[in-house]
Amino acid sequence: LAKALRHAADSVALDARLRSAFFTRRAELRELRATGAREAIELHGTAESLDPNAHGSTMAVRRLLASEERWRELIEDLEVESDDDAPDMVARTALRISRVQSERLGLRDEAIASLLRAARAVPHDLLVLEELERLQTEAGDDESLIKTVAARVAATPRRNRPPLLVRLAKRKRALGRIADALVDLAAALESDASYEPAWREAAEILAENGKHKQLVGLYVTVADAAHFPAMQADAHIQAARVLDRDLGDVEAAVEH
Known about the structure:
Blueprint: H1 2-11, H2 16-31, H3 37-50, H4 55-67, H5 71-82, H6 87-104, H7 108-121, H8 126-139, H9 142-155, H10 162-174, H11 178-191, H12 196-208, H13 212-225, H14 229-246, H15 250-255
């Protein structure tokens, strides 16, 4: 059968699509052999070169390269495809390349570089940004991580931003960028004034920096926006403590 397919391919030299189909069938036969993967890859590759729409051969090449653990060749094959794809497909391909680089080859820096290229092509792709954040966290690259989390904030609907903004603020606070951290927390509280992680983080920063009047204002805002009586009561208690202990305003403290 293999010989017949080879002769059939030779007989239709002027019909690239049909010839490609014969090469694909020959490759499938080679795959059935325990040691036929290498030749099958070559035959599928020929089918691809004859017919760019031979998607079956494209997927087979990648499957076989992965099964043979020929990771660098798999990356090269994916990179060729990404050059011609629409932006959203560029992002998907970059994700796959980065995972091969990081998980199979241990090349975290190269994986980050692949994702950064994808992020430039598709700035608001959340899957790319999430994977980039994960790898940058592993690498301990705080400045780059801050840029990535900020990009995630920009790509996320406003109502879902507070957790990201708190994470961003924590990173900036760790780097001593207190004013910037407070800006992020204010943005989180603007979206949801009762979001507890945001106001507790802001309260810690204000207390550490002796901004007691602002701290009281924060607690009052939280108390007014609280959805639950327990949170409202806690905010009033915290405001009273600051007024009494740090500002010496007992009368105002009693009002809370």
